[in-house]
Amino acid sequence: MKENKFKTEISQISETSVLVEFGMKISEDINKKVRTLCTYLDEKPFNGMIEYVPAFTSISIIYNPLDMNSESPYEVVKTILDNIISKLDFSLADEEHIVEIPVCYGSEFGQDIEQVAKINNITVDEVIKIHSEGKYLVYMIGFAPGFPYLGGMSEKIAAPRRESPRTAIPEGSVGIAGMQTGVYPIETPGGWQLIGKTPLKMFDLNRNPKSLLKAGDIAKFYPISYEEYVKLKEEE
Amino acid sequence: MSISVLNPGLHATIQDFGRHGYQKYGVIVSGAMDTYSMRLANIVVGNNENEGVLEITMIGPSLKLEKGTLISITGGNISPTIKEKKIPMGRPVYLNEDCVLNFGPCIAGCRSYLAIAGGFEVPKVMESKSTYLRAQFGGFNGRTLKKGDVLNIGVKSSTANKIIKKLEEINPKGEFVAPSWYMRDSIVENSNSTIIRVFPDRQFNNISDESINKFFNLKFNIDNKSDRMGYRLCGEKIELKEKLEMISEEVSVGTIQIPPDGNPIILLADRQTTGGYPKIAHAASVDIQKIVQLKPNNKITFKQITLKEAEKLYFEREKYIAELKKAIRLTII
Lengths: 236, 333
Hints:
The complex is a heterodimer of chains A (about 240) and B (about 325).
Chain A: H1 2-5, E1 9-14, E2 17-21, H2 28-43, E3 49-54, E4 58-63, H3 73-87, E5 98-105, H4 113-119, H5 124-133, E6 136-141, E7 148-151, E8 166-169, E9 173-177, E10 180-183, E11 188-190, E12 193-197, E13 218-223, H6 226-235
Parallel strand pairs in A: 5-13
Antiparallel strand pairs in A: 1-2, 2-4, 3-4, 5-12, 6-7, 6-13, 8-11, 9-10, 9-12
Chain B: E1 2-7, E2 11-15, H1 35-43, E3 53-57, E4 62-65, E5 70-77, E6 81-82, E7 85-86, E8 93-95, E9 99-102, E10 108-116, E11 150-152, H2 158-170, E12 176-177, E13 193-200, H3 209-217, E14 220-222, E15 230-234, E16 249-250, E17 255-257, E18 265-267, E19 274-275, E20 279-283, H4 288-292, E21 299-304, H5 307-329
Parallel strand pairs in B: 13-21
Antiparallel strand pairs in B: 1-4, 1-11, 2-3, 3-10, 4-9, 5-8, 5-10, 6-7, 6-9, 8-12, 13-20, 14-15, 14-21, 15-18, 16-19, 17-18, 17-20
């Protein structure tokens, strides 16, 4: 209940940016406030705003101080944001947008799936079942183009990061790190336990929107065979 | 007009002011490490200050340039030459004939910026010409330059043509011609040790008093694992008062993070969009240029200022850039 008392805080964090904080813990309600403000700023960016960067509980807004025509540009931005936030309706229900993501679990794509099963004292099939039955809220996109921070994974398949990170994790790999699951959109080094791979492109320059997922979406995974993976990969 | 790459050097990429507006999709900003030098290089050849330039790191390339090209080189001094003659930095240089631009020893700093009047004709990806190596897009085919690459040059601005006319009046002969004036602090001074002004960041109060003391009084070494994403420092370990549960939140150019090993990291152009480590301080925007020109094993010392002071420095610099742009446009040079 303490979270309800958290007052929205606005503070200057650099010469060109300001942080709006809605709370101090990861929760769907707080994240929804972040997304409500993001949606507003997408539709009505204020004069001099360059961009915003959403996170789990906060959003940083980058602006051009020269556009504020003031010796205290931050004060101008703060007033604008105070105004916007006081008028926002955070109670509007989200339209549920589900994105289904096919995953070829195990084999060479998910080399750590047996490890994940072992850690949790369950079978590989159970890992697949639990992972693909979950509904995952996209809290934010960050780290790499189209990389979703997903919430809602079952603790029954939680697994710590690998002790030595892989130098290159292939694009499309689905992994688990602690209580989180995610999909690697580009080849990058990483320490996540890999359980499978999706043929879908999480980020595609030639697609609109470029990112398959956006904050607020619900991601769902479903198992496919290797043959289906190959077929879908060709279609992508 | 075009530029041919005879030898790519160590790490040359096309960069501009960065890719802004797409961090919400996880797309990092990228852009020039030293945006100040990049802007000055563009301004002095009559380009839009946000035009793509070549960022040259440590070991420069060998480039074949055509007669009639107007260039400028700013930032770190990597001994640029044409026919073994030194190319003066921080000012426009007009080529009277086809020639090969070479680089040599790294004399001061480690990143040079080469601007070409007319800019590099590469497609903009998400409104920017910056190269994002890891995602393989932007710049020249999303990668560093390779031997045999041919980079097309765009059309020169009217300001560039006015500058050329002035330079031709100075001396129409020789391989190249350049004025005797140059831009204030467009050239990095030789310095292996520098003082960086910082203001406290969000977790400043979570750092132990002893560590705060060390942070502002001791020198840190630039680690050789430093790159475009961030500069890793080593020296005294910075410790928290107590363990802190952090939720990933914003980071920006100049954020100084303290990872669990206690060695600070200063985040730079290719930083990730958000981060989950405690942030002790944030480098003043005007001092980023000094950081990114440091080489591994160079030394850094931090000096505390207020965010208000950093803001004032920011305004002073922007005022200088605005005046410079005006002077170049009026060619009162």
